[in-house]
């Protein structure tokens, strides 16, 4: 379904700050990460002293039962949630220490986030949704943004849907638009939370094939998934249970 288009890069990986680092070094590292939420019933610890290293170009599936901490894990990696304690390091960035403004800009340039329910803005067209991260981070000129967004949509086979609102296209097309948006700023890391949960099996297969190609072209991809068949295709599986990593 998806066309192969990513430009091949050299063996060295690029950190979020643009520096080269050794291919054996960790791109993502969590050190003693704890995340506790305050609820009406009392404190709930979603992550319990998590240690995790992710190398560049890894394709990782995060698996586990509902409530095991999968979404919280990727949320602290992307800075959507802050850890209660511990360190979250991505490249040279200490994500847990970034202020809100710096965090938003860092995320926009470093991590492409793909949500299960797409999270496309309903009042913007498909192409405007894809251009949004470029607008936010002031990357590329105005003319280049539209050209790049259309190029991404062409690769997702969505060029003919570019000027429609998200509600006018199918669920599978919305997910592909969300992936195009996540790739808008060419981030080194993609994080997807149940990206195939609302897709039919054929489209889900195509999405995973795209992720495999991205890894082959130098991206680092983390996917939360309940689909064990798809999870077997990754380079490594991280399994959580009750907020702890039980297999990595």
Key phrases:
248 residues, four-stranded antiparallel sheet, six-stranded mixed sheet, 12 strands, disordered N terminus, single chain, Rossmann fold, alpha/beta
Strand content: 25-35%
Q: Work out the radius of gyration.
A: 18 Å
Shape: globular
Distance between the termini: 31 Å
**Number of beta strands:** 12
**Largest sheet report:** 6 strands, mixed
Briefly note the structural class of the backbone.
alpha/beta
User: Number of domains in the coordinates?
Assistant: 1
Low-confidence stretches: 1-24
Query: What is the count of helical runs?
Result: 7
In CATH terms, the superfamily is P-loop containing nucleotide triphosphate hydrolases
Strand order of the largest sheet: 8-9-10-5-11-12
The CATH architecture category equals 3-Layer(aba) Sandwich
Whole-number mean pLDDT: 86
Task: Provide structural commentary.
The chain has helices at 70-78, 100-110, 126-137, 142-155, 171-182, 201-216, 228-231; strands at 13-14, 20-21, 28-39, 42-54, 59-63, 85-90, 93-94, 111-114, 189-193, 220-224, 236-241, 244-247. By secondary structure, the protein is α/β, with parallel strands linked by helices. The chain has one domain (13-247): P-loop containing nucleotide triphosphate hydrolases (Rossmann fold). The chain has a 6-stranded mixed β-sheet with strand order 8-9-10-5-11-12, with helices on both faces. A hairpin with a 2-residue loop joins strand 6 and strand 7 (93-94). The longest helix is centred in the C-terminal third of the chain and has 16 residues, at 201-216. The radius of gyration is 18 Å and the shape is globular.
